[in-house]
Amino acid sequence: MPEVDATDARLLLALGEDPRASVMALSHRLGLARNTVQARLARLESNGVLAPLDRRVRPEALGYRLSAYVTVQVAQRGLADVSAALAQIPEVLEVTGLSGVADLLVQVAAKDADDLWRLTEQVLAIPGVQRIDTALAMRRFVDHRLGPLLERAAGEGRGTD
């Protein structure tokens, strides 16, 4: 994945503040040519810098009021198969490989406690899963964010930090 330069960071910050801004509005706001903004946005999208739009939808809006993190210990050499099986479960939002005792950190969304129980049983039934631990997310104190990093990247290009 290519690095984001200061101009890209400024563009992404502007887009974050007004996600529905037109290319023309972004070009005026940033003092860039319309074609420059258009080309940079296209490059950012095609290079995978921009996350899919569905990342902005909160599971709570779909009736999934519980969020939990499941750590999974996997039998050796079973990581790819377990990860593929987890990807087939709609309530699995994200799977991250870890170092340490647990092999995977799985973020799940559930409608209620019974639904979470069903999900954990489903994860335990995957061949290669040896053990899981589940932690219920009680409250989100800091939402997923990149704004501070984008601000730093935008500032670095102008000689500030």
UniProtKB/TrEMBL annotation:
Pfam family, one: HTH_AsnC-type
Coiled-coil boundaries: none
Listed GO MF terms: sequence-specific DNA binding
Domain of life: Bacteria
GO BP, sorted A to Z: response to amino acid
Transmembrane segments: none
Keywords: DNA-binding, Transcription, Transcription regulation
GO cellular component: cytosol
InterPro entries registered for this protein in UniProt: AsnC-type_HTH_dom, Dimeric_a/b-barrel, Tscrpt_reg_AsnC-like, Tscrpt_reg_AsnC/Lrp_C, WH-like_DNA-bd_sf, WH_DNA-bd_sf
Signal sequence range: none
Keyword flag Amino-acid biosynthesis: no
Ranges for domain HTH asnC-type: 4-65
Protein name according to UniProt: DNA-binding transcriptional regulator, Lrp family
Upper classification of the organism: Bacteria, Bacillati, Actinomycetota, Actinomycetes, Geodermatophilales
